[in-house]
Specification:
- By secondary structure, the protein is α+β, with helices and mostly antiparallel strands.
- A hairpin with a 2-residue loop joins strand 4 (about 155) and strand 5.
- It has eight helices and seven strands.
- The longest helix is centred in the N-terminal third of the chain and has 20 residues, at about 1-20.
Length: about 220
């Protein structure tokens, strides 16, 4: 996947150089459209159609900058969810069923979010939701609403009903919080939810540390 993204970025650079050499306005428009398409491919998860890790980080970094002290000075929220026992879907029903689960659950989550919330597939069956200008007293309520929406969704594959649940971690990001700090806290909270029985929400707290960036891959 990383190789594919690098290849797309290389083609974008080549196309950008070609724009300067284009002789007509029509040629430039065609090349600009190509660049837009390639940039979209580089930042979008091909299976679910939502942002991939790269696209997510680009958007979230801008939001964090805007919400920093001295600018908007607003609090944000970061939510992580991971499909419970996902491997069993692939092992029992096949990989096509696993892909179907991921896509349907993305649809379920999107219906619960605001237009400006950012949903991304961060890796495998692990997803992130960044919620700008989110209040701390509504954090658990929002995450639990997402959790219950997945639980109540009737997932069917080839005439068989497949129960799907997910475990959630959620953290509030005060103004000045870094994404790396939030990721450490939300990842720990999500695994706490898994350890406590799955299909539930655990709320974490950001711990300020200078080493946070070194601990997140």
């Amino acid at each position: 996947m990383e190789y594919a993204i690098l290849l797309i970025l290389y083609v974008v650079l080549v196309a950008a150089a070609a724009i300067f050499a284009a002789r007509s306005l029509r040629e430039r428009k065609v090349l600009l459209a190509l660049i837009d398409k390639l940039e979209n491919l580089a930042t979008t998860d091909p299976l679910t159609g939502i942002a991939n890790r790269r696209g997510f980080l680009e958007k979230v970094e801008r939001e964090i900058e805007m919400s920093a002290p001295g600018r908007l000075n607003t609090s944000n929220a970061l939510i992580m969810y991971d499909i419970d026992d996902f491997r069993k879907f692939n092992n029992t029903y096949g990989h096509a069923a696993g892909d179907r689960v991921l896509c349907e659950i993305v649809g379920v989550i999107k219906k619960q979010l605001r237009a400006y919330d950012i949903l991304a597939r961060y890796g495998g069956e692990e997803f992130l939701v960044f919620m700008p200008s989110s209040k701390e007293d509504s954090l658990y309520k929002i995450a639990n609403r997402l959790c219950r929406a997945i639980e109540s969704h009737e997932m069917c594959y080839n005439g068989t009903r497949i129960p799907v649940t997910a475990s959630f971690g959620a953290v509030q990001m005060p103004p000045g919080s870094s994404f790396e700090e939030a990721m450490l806290a939300v990842d720990e909270a999500m695994y706490k939810a898994k350890h406590n029985g799955k299909n539930q929400v655990a709320v974490g707290i950001i711990q300020k540390t200078d080493q946070a960036a070194d601990q997140v891959c």
